[in-house]
Amino acid sequence: MRIARFSIDGNVAFGAVEGSTAPGAEGELVLDIIKGIPFADFELSGTKVPLSKVRLLPPVLPNKVVAVGRNYAEHAAELGNELPEAPITFFKPSTSVVGSGDPIVYPSFSQDVHHEAELAVVIGRMCREVPKERVKDVILGYTCANDVTARDVQQREKQWARAKGFDSACPLGPWIETDLDPADLTIQCTVNGEQRQLGRTSDMVRSVEDLVVHISEAMTLLPGDVILTGTPAGVGPLNVGDEVAVTIEGIGTLTNKVIKRG
What we know:
Residues 1-59 form the Rv2993c-like N-terminal domain. The chain is mainly β.
């Protein structure tokens, strides 16, 4: 099931996305409004609205976004870094989260902002110290993410809070796919239609299961929390006016335009 969060006529709701996003598919996508929230038992209301009539929002409003650095060997190498002995984790604040179609606002304190296409894991239930064999039980689904990074600030400052946590630095969307095997998916990033990144989740140094185990050893994960699993090689600069798109096999495309801070 694909679950979207959206607004219509000033109201916010979740809905199940119906229809095909495959090229050449006929018919418009519609949303069957969900009774309740997707983190508990819910029913489809049968009330349907065209996707074109709503505004897509970030599919979740996470309490925290836990991101993982250097989880693809080629990406670590392109930035001149060694693979870490243990996963490098950091936080992106909830205020950095935006949805598909929302702008990425170029921060005034940086002159070198980069895209980083990533698979995002959405947690479905409160959990801690999750054993590897139970990881699937705590995951609601997966979505696309862009770990937007002020690269010059990241290199200049020891902590990455400003470099990766500024407002609009965590686009998520367009929706959550609940029925997906994350082991070997294509991840692609384009800027103005030109391909920048192309990789597969099978190239991750540590799998989704390994990351959930590692992170949940230290902290309680809450429904709606998000884990970013790292980016493949090919990261590069974004400029004001660019349109950046992250496409992940089996999920869809997350699209954002870069604007100047007003």
